[in-house]
Amino acid sequence: MQGDVAMQLVDNVDAFLLRELERSVDRREEHWQRDRSSWATHQESIKGQRARLSSILGIRDARVAPQAPNILSANTQTVRIGHGTGFDVFVIRWTSFGHVTGEGLMLDPTSKAWANVIAIPDCEWTPEQLVGLSPGVEREMQYARRLAESGCRVYVPMLINRQRKQFDWGPRPAPDITNREMLYRSAYELGRGLIGYEIQKVLSLVDYAATQDLPIGIIGWGEGGLIALYSSAVDERIDSTCVSGYFDSRQNAWQEPLDRNVFGLLEQFGDAELATMILPRQLLIEAAAGPVADFPGNGGGPARLRSPELESVQAEMDRAKSLVTPLSTENFKLLKSGNDGQGNGGSSVALTAFCEGLDGKLNNDTGQPPQSSQLPDAAARHRRQMREIDEHSQAVLRKSGAVRAEFMKGLNTSSEDAYNQSVEDYRRHFYNEVIGRFDHELAAPAPRSRRIYETEHWRGYEVVLDVFDGVFAYGILILPKDLKEGERRPVVVCQHGLEGRPQDTVGIQSAHYYSGFAGELAKRGYITFSPQNLYIGYDRFRTLQRKSYLLKKTLFSTITPQHQQIIHWLKTLPYVDDDRIAFYGLSYGGKTAMRVPAILTDYCLSICSADFNEWVDKNASTHNPRSYVWSGEYEIFEFDLGSTFNYAEMAALIAPRPFMVERGHDDGVADDWTVGWEFGKVRNLYASRLKLPERCEIEWFDGPHKINGVKTYEFLDRQLQWNSKTHTNRTD
Fold this sequence. Notes:
It contains 23 helices and 24 strands. It is of the alpha/beta class.
């Protein structure tokens, strides 16, 4: 191979993931056991999918008992803030879950209501705009107003918007990240999501509406369409659903705003599958112009929104119908706004059909624009809602340690053998449900190598190995020059960090954080191998994570089989001791040290340098100034680690194999006390419960984010039974 091999690797993995996304469409039905003998049996047969969808959306917090929304006074004179033709307008707030409320408007008809409707605006619209009390939404798109004029009681919840630099109550200045992404980040790490939180708020309104003997409808445009589609898919009490300017193929969802990310969505669900979960209830798809926007990264995930094209909308609807054939889909209708499906959302055609699905009729005689005496402070309301969501996520974070302890209670530490047996279920869960496992069999490695280095003490070789389906592994093998024929030596796999390369680890070129540790260990007599991992290329590699998420995968879903192939190949070399292949990684390589050896037991030990800390807090806390919620590493978040695996629990998957942490006091990754807090749990497992204190160690050194190479080298010598002075196996 010629040129930049690392970037060729990223490109090849990108192409592989695009193929996997394409294949996901046909693979989805493998997860469903549809009974198409009747709609009743079909609904019963997909209960598992409904539960699965709720779980990955993060709908996990118990909602409060059904209760009427509180009507808030706008002033001391009246609770009504406005009125339109045939309806009054009220400001409302309702408790949904925990201490989280929903806020918005209620449009109450002056005559008896014949339906309860939840009309959800796009996230860039306020409820007042959708009603016509504030400018910003064209009159013909004010579907909340038109439904109220027709006699529906209409609830209009607000959604969090994508404005930037408004999350300003933390320990750092407000980052240039959208409000929705900021709230998504913490929630995702804790098994929740902003989408899930907003669905919960909508379903709390459904809870109350269901106590009345009236049909329930839900309608939304843009982001409101997204919330409407998901809400109706998980809750069968909604009688009529209208999705405008949103329904489409989701194969390019990795390009959409990051707050829309749902881990494993495309493993089982596209919009077509969601539609089949709503049927045979009425589902109207309005092909209309959707939101169009470009979002630069600037610290957050770069993204774009494009209006669904009519041909794509039709194709997704056709796919949905094919999934439930021969069942009737008469209540599943495509309604075009404009000849090309790019007219305004909330058209009269769509609203007429929507009302008919609720046994009512649209009033086509639109009245005068609604009038208001006093509008609520939309900015203050938005900030209040953001803070409530953030505070809820932080409360979940505070309780997450107890949740993980309950999750891990099945470990049996009565003996090493008992522990090895009991930990296997957790290892499988970690690989299958957290990291994500590709089912591809490893290809024959077909090794290719060339010598690129020669020093006084060792020779270095570039190596490329096939892995599967166009994915390859690449790295640098270093062999000590005093290696004797027939001798078998231990190997240390030396892993670079973020934006790093194998060349950084060997000590030939300047990369002072690495301290040339691969070359230094070779001078001590070890064979070393420095792999190229995927986290290089800035947004180029981060889009790999975006694509992986949708498949219920992560970067480490690809990195892990690469390492498995490297290990398999190393074991074929006559000078490698199969039982003594160790792992040592810095920074993002330290993240690898916590994950890959936790899965691959062929690694006989693991050393995590310049990364170990209270990882869940590091990713989810908005109180910790060192948290990733403030940073540009938008790919770093892993779904639901809060309920499953912090670093102590990952280390438990490495146990009872030796494990070590290398920590510099001045390393900005974390504070010493958070490192010590998390490591204390690991040390307790090894020393107190497993009675193996000699296998677990931490070195604290006075220095920065770097390989120190003192106690860790001694740890390697001791655990790998190697005399680094004489370059011989130890016999003691």
